[in-house]
């Protein structure tokens, strides 16, 4: 019987071992990366702060490492992509320009942030410059640049007498040789000469500066100028046959910078203190006159207004934002630079639409992939986006997608953007570039 | 979430054992049957008839004791939608057991017996850091049913039988990661099911030596977990106030099954069986967990299952090669109860095809039964679009493929 059992079991055990090995399913062949008709061997990224990896009101090493171009390049590598060089801050200077961090919440639940000072130089136009990176680079994202600035000579060459602060960009200076007056366009042209693939996301700042200052600071770029410069940059990027993806501009009124501080909430707060109080704002009236009026729910208050509203002002019986009427001395209105009223919102939306028309028209002319970030962020603002079972929304702090400045994405937000671009690229070039798992990238960092 | 996971766990168990009809029903109940594609409703092979069709027990000539054990080895591959990285399980196994003791007068019309079997159970441990970690990281579901049974032969051709089904032991352990803004925490739900009762009844008709028919019904039992333990780990102090629950309640329907079976015996050596079963999975609508305190702002969680009834077809036979040696073969086709867009990591299910082999050798009153099964669960893809359309984004989009190997051995003694 023992012999029998042994005879019986030995082949069975062998069979079992084979069976288990053969049992492991293999799906990898079904999902092999493929470059399609694109060539990712040298990819360059053109853009502004979003492209640089800016977040939490600063550019620092962690943000650079999680920039969407870096994520794209990492994914392109599975489909023939090459090396991707970014002008990274060193470990020793990893705080970069400085940034905001979350330190906690007030009893009422309002987030408290603190500034982490920069340690890479150039804290003001007068201080020492950032450590330069003048070697060939792939990520040409320059925080703060407008499409309107691409032909500005000396954009990365600081002048002291007189100080050219209005037309000088310290982040472009980082990637510009000493004493060079080269324009952003010229730098892009040099890198584009050898590029096989590009991403381009320029133009956000051509409307953002106006919006974030409540229509007081910054001007909206003229559409004809925008269109001309957009055409030029796309022409130079495609001059050598490179393929690429371009992004449209999101409607900035959907971002937490404008949606977190709400008139209705402020009104409720004031009325809880004194039912006679209401919310009053200062706006630009006809012919540029400053007028005071009752705020409506259609008025957008900026994120920085939260630090001002409700504080006391010497000489006024009302806290900032409160009042009982529009007459002189009857209110202490929210200053104009914190308010984006209906007229200003219309100006922002009209410009965004016109700019996007120019971007899409040119992209279609060159048969490029298009990431419609405007449609995407509108969808996120309405219904959020679920990434592998995790819910993300456009809400400030809790939504995971927007960093502490309320404008720029978190690493999670950049990962989501990278995935949307990959989808656009895959669709346009019949490629199979794998997406990233956005949940591997953080939302807002909380105090430990 | 816990209840949902529990339900899902059941499904995984089924797939893990794979001999049965999708969901979390397992028919690894008899080692002879296991070698024959799982047929048994229309046959009267041995004491395992108590599970397959209590009505056939009175027609089982021998009285005896038998015990069997199976080893389920599930291997799974997963690729998230849009990704290219294959995830594989941290491999584990389960050991579904069965035990039967049948008694009765040698020539009498009565048979009585007791059956112990493990109709539900599953264990899946997903890869560390896998894309679906916030849906599920680990599931371990166990159950033991005890079934006192009586059977009576009304005539030489017709017999009936019934058993009281006792959910004697049920345990669930579900774990998943919790997505925090900048890190992951972890939650473990661990509980035992209340003892519950159901029944298993059947009719067996054998109009000739060459033909037999059977019908069997197993009732639904709701597995109820009360005051299961909720344990959090890795939650930073900033978030701990949002994860306060310590206890959970959940209910998992262990659904009813109706089966018909046919046996054909062309000669004394050859037996062929065919079974068809309807599993009433449509009772599984949602998986709900209730917590004693809030978890991230809510004291309950509910997840859509919306299963649908599923059919299973089995075909198998045995041939008596010599006086001592019998060989078996069979196969089965199981429809999945999981609809498109509702696939979960707990039950990465689809239609399944299985093939089985078996052999028995008897030495007088002793016998040894060997069986081996290979179950292929078809590739299943769930897309993010489907999840969005169905409101089921609490799970992950991607493609699953699972295969299962199940060797088994049984010993029996007839008296």
Automatic annotation (TrEMBL), chain A:
GO terms for molecular function: hydrolase activity. Keywords: Hydrolase. The keyword Transit peptide does not apply. SUPFAM superfamilies: SGNH hydrolase. InterPro entries: GDSL (IPR001087), SGNH_hydro_sf (IPR036514). Transmembrane segments: none annotated. The keyword Hydrolase applies. This is SGNH/GDSL hydrolase family protein. The lineage of its organism: Bacteria, Pseudomonadati, Bacteroidota, Cytophagia, Cytophagales.
UniProtKB/TrEMBL annotation, chain B:
InterPro entries: OMPP1/FadL/TodX (IPR005017). The keyword Transcription does not apply. It comes from the Bacteria. The keyword Phosphoprotein does not apply. Residues 1-21 form the signal peptide. SUPFAM superfamilies: Porins (SSF56935). It is found in: Cell outer membrane. Pfam families: Toluene_X. It is a multi-pass membrane protein. Keywords: Cell outer membrane, Membrane, Signal, Transmembrane, Transmembrane beta strand. Belongs to the OmpP1/FadL family. This is Outer membrane protein transport protein. It comes from Hymenobacter sublimis.
